[in-house]
Amino acid sequence: MIDIVISNTSGIPIYQQILDQISAQIIKGEMHPGDSLPAIRTAAKELRISVITVKKAWEELERAGLIYSMVGKGCFVAELSGGDLSEKRNELFGRRMDKDFAYYKELGLSLEEIIKAIEARYR
Amino acid sequence: MIDIVISNTSGIPIYQQILDQISAQIIKGEMHPGDSLPAIRTAAKELRISVITVKKAWEELERAGLIYSMVGKGCFVAELSGGDLSEKRNELFGRRMDKDFAYYKELGLSLEEIIKAIEARYR
Amino acid sequence: MIDIVISNTSGIPIYQQILDQISAQIIKGEMHPGDSLPAIRTAAKELRISVITVKKAWEELERAGLIYSMVGKGCFVAELSGGDLSEKRNELFGRRMDKDFAYYKELGLSLEEIIKAIEARYR
Amino acid sequence: MIDIVISNTSGIPIYQQILDQISAQIIKGEMHPGDSLPAIRTAAKELRISVITVKKAWEELERAGLIYSMVGKGCFVAELSGGDLSEKRNELFGRRMDKDFAYYKELGLSLEEIIKAIEARYR
DNA sequence: GTGGTCTAGACCACT
DNA sequence: GTGGTCTAGACCACT
C-alpha cells in the first residue's frame, strides 16, 4: 500500500503530487534507506493512473537523489544519512521559500504580518 | 511606460506574471483609483508579447475587481477604498499562504524553523 | 532542418543521441543563444521518430541548462556566455573522462599507452 | 573469496560490472591460466545477486575467450600466453577508446586538452 | 517480474 | 501553433 492521495481538481500535475508526497515521506523519515518502493505497474494500478505518470514521478525522485532504481529489481529509498536528509529538506524548503517570500514582498507585506499569519495557521 | 518585468525562464505563465505585478502595484497604492492602464496593443508592443496575452491578464484583473474596462476608452484602476484594498490584499495573501504552509507542514517543518527562515530572508 | 543523425543499430537510446548531438552543437557554438529549436512535432516528423522521444531529449537539454522552453512559443538556446559554455563543456567532458579513465586504469594501462592511443586516433 | 565490488547505483548492469572486473584481473595477470573461478552458486551467494546474473557474466567471459567451462567441473581461466593476453587487452581497450574519442571529438576537444585532462587524472 | 525506451494519440493551457 | 500532461500498450534488457 502506498500512502498517497491524488487530487484531480487541484490543478497540480499528478506526477508532481506524487513527487511531493514521497519526497516528504523520505525527508521526514517515514520511509527508510533501502525500503523498496512499489513497482511502477503496481503503484499505477493502485492509484488508478498510468504507468508512465508513476514512472515520471519515480524519475524525478531519482534525479533528486532520494531513490535509486535497479532494472529487474525495483526502486529503493537512497542510502542517505540524517545529515544528507536534512540537507535535502533544506534544499527543497529553501527553494520554495525563496519563491514564496519574493511574492509576499511584492505584495508589500511586513515581516510582522507574515509571522502573524503563519502563527494563525500553525495553531 | 509600464513597470513590469517579464521572465522567460521562470516557468510562470506570462499573463500570470503581469497579473501578479499589476495586482501588487494596485494593492500597494502605487497605482491609484481611476489611473488608466496602457492600451492592450501598447502594452503588448512594449513588453514584446502577444496582444492576446495582455488581454488575458487585463481580464483576470477585471475579474479580481482590481480594474474595470470601458468600451472604447480603455481600462482603469477600480475605485477601491483603503479598506477594500487591504481586503483584496488579505484575500490574495491568504489564499497563497494556505497553499504554502500546507506544503511546509508536509515537509515536517516546525513553526520556529519557518520563522527563522523568513527572518533571514527579510533582513 | 536539424543537423542530427540517428543510428538505430548503435544501442544508444535515440533521445540520448539527440541530446549528445545538440549539446555538442550548442557547446561548440554552432547554435547560438536565442536560436530557436524546431518544434517538437516538426523535429519528430523530420527525424521520423515519436514526439515523445524528441520531448525527452529537449527536457534533458533544459535540465542541463542548455535550452529553455516557453509554452506556446517554442524552445530556445539558453543565454549562456562564453564562460558558461566552456564550463558546461568541462562539466560534460569531465564527468565522462572520470568514467573512461577509471576503466582504463582498471585494465592496467599506463599513461604512455593511453596517450599513444589517443594520438593515433587524432592524427 | 571473489575480488569484485558491485555498485547498485552506477547504472551499469551487474553482469557487466562482473565481466569488466574479471576481464581486468585476467588481463592484468592477477588471475592465472588454469585458475578456477568460483562456482556460480557460490559467487551468487557471496555477491548477493541472482545465479542467472553470474551465469550471464561467466558466459560472456567464455565468449570473449578469457575462460572456459568444463561440465561438472566448473570454469577456469583460459590458457593464454602473454602475447594472447596483451592482444585481448588491446582489443578491449581499442574498442572502448574508439567510442570515447569519437565523443571527445564531437565535443570539439583538442588533443592537447585531452592529454592534459588525462595527466591530471593519472597523477 | 522489473525498470527503460519508444510509439500513437488525446486534451490542455498558453501564445 | 506551441509545449505540458496523461493515457494504453508494445518490446527490450536485466534479474
Second CATH tier, the architecture of the largest domain in chain A = Orthogonal Bundle
Largest inter-chain contact set: A-B, 29 and 30 residues
Portion of residues within helices of chain A: 55-70%
List the quaternary state of the chains. Answer: homotetramer
What structural category arises from helix and sheet content of chain A? mainly alpha
Give the strand tally of chain A.
2
Tally of separate domains of chain A? 2
Strand content of chain A: 5-15%
CATH fold node name of the largest domain in chain A: Arc Repressor Mutant, subunit A
Assign an overall shape of chain A.
globular
CATH class of the largest domain in chain A: Mainly Alpha
Let me know the average pLDDT of chain A: 92
Largest sheet of chain A: 2 strands, antiparallel
Find the CATH superfamily of the largest domain in chain A: Winged helix-like DNA-binding domain superfamily/Winged helix DNA-binding domain
Q: What value does the Rg of chain A take, in angstroms?
A: 17 Å
- The largest sheet of chain A has its strands arranged as 1-2
| Low-pLDDT ranges of chain A | none
How many DSSP H or I helices of chain A?
A: 5
End-to-end separation of chain A: 31 Å
Question: N-to-C SSE series of chain A?
Answer: HHHEEHH
